[in-house]
Amino acid sequence: MADPTLMIASHRAIPPQPNVARSHRPILALDLGTLTGWALRDADGLIASGTVSFRPRRFDGGGMRYLRFTNWLAEIERLSGPIAAVWFEEVRRHAGTDAAHVYGGLMATLTGWAELHGVPYEGVPVGTIKRHAAGKGNADKAAMIASMRARGFSPVDDNEADAIAILLWAIETDGGVR
Questions:
Q1: How many angstroms separate the CA atoms of 175 and 126, rounded?
Q2: pLDDT tens digit string along 17-37?
Q3: CATH value at residue 41
Q4: How far apart are CA 126 and CA 6, in angstroms?
Q5: How many domains does the chain have?
Q6: Range of 8's domain?
Q7: What is the pTM of this model?
């Protein structure tokens, strides 16, 4: 049986956006955290999104969360084909120390994986994403979810909504590698 942490917690495929040409290389957008939001545009312009939990299990060592994240990235690439670029939410301030540690570990794991696989990566400031998606650089979680729903998506939470917003920002500002 597959490791449940590698499974996609929620998954939606949205038809290609009207202004997205076919034959693009897959790009991945992430909202890093214990519950990571993700959005992927595949080579045909289809967008899939969801969330995946990297919550440690009862008897896990401190590095297991990051090992599971590495395995999840490998599985995403195996299923989608070579990832052309990864965009992630660049958080500069966290509500708590634990959240900051988890974010830093996931970001280190992501950037190490990307370097190893020759995948370009870039962080996008939180305010930039919110301004592009909801019109306000300090939009709250509900506004981000509403904004993505208005664009035809059905995010289950703010993590997935943020990942979709990052992906749309990348595509619409020419960050979507052709």
A1: 16
A2: 555 444 578 999 999 999 999
A3: 3.30.420.10
A4: 26
A5: 1
A6: 4-172
A7: 0.84
